[in-house]
Amino acid sequence: MDRALLIDCDGVLVDVEIDGHLAAFNQVWREEGVPWQWTPGQYRTALRTAGGRERLAALAGSPDFLAAVGSLARFGDWRSTVERWHRRKTELLAAIIERGGVQARPGVVRLMREARQEGWALAVVSSGTARTVHGFVRTLLADLADDLVVVTGDDVSTKKPDPEGYLRALTRLRVPAHRALAVEDSHRGLRAAVTAGLTCLVTTTPATAGQDFTAAVAVLSDLGEPGSPPVRGLPGEWSGHVTVAHLASLLDAARSGPVVHR
């Protein structure tokens, strides 16, 4: 295999930041009687920090959070509190996944299957926990699991925008960076992929639309499905959905000086 397709999980394979992660975080606080709930807008801001545990820890510096709860002293040891909240949030999200309550974003599973048939190596590279990411893989990519490299936030010392996750995946795939294409949804993920030397395509979500994607080779609404409405952002010469041939053309263009589509 001399080419590879690497995708992010949250925001690319699935979009559960608001209905999944945010809902689970807020449920944790309701269970514990903490007078705080993230609004969707506040959570979108929090998403600039990679990793749920890290987002929770950052609340210690949030004026809104401190105004709502009064003082961190009410929680005792802050680090232990963050770990407890994150553990419970992961349990709640896992229950949602196991109930089959999560759908893949348009075109992702199709494109990964087609890429595998064309001989591409495959990977999922995420800042999420191993339990959550592998849960999504088992639910949505079960037929590809044996051929899939998975790197999670538990596998790295530094999360995105650090490139460590992508570099680990490339090592395991044995594919050079210039022969690999990443699909990301956020500026943070884009930076990680590009810093690792990959070509990167972005599919936006409501939580990430409007971020700086100038380093991406293309910025699309999603990857699309045959027979569905055309993907927003597709170059005029492409069909209504992204194909493996399109991915190959992006890689080839990047090697000779990419033509960026936005």
Automatic annotation (TrEMBL):
Record GO terms (molecular function): hydrolase activity
Recorded superkingdom: Bacteria
InterPro entries from the UniProt entry: CbbY-like, HAD-like_sf, HAD-SF_hydro_IA, HAD_sf, PGP-like_dom2
Pfam families: Hydrolase
PANTHER family named among the record's database cross-references: CBBY-LIKE PROTEIN, XYLULOSE-1,5-BISPHOSPHATE (XUBP) PHOSPHATASE
NCBIfam families: HAD-SF-IA-v3
Protein name according to UniProt: Haloacid dehalogenase superfamily, subfamily IA, variant 3 with third motif having DD or ED
Organism from which the protein derives: Lentzea fradiae
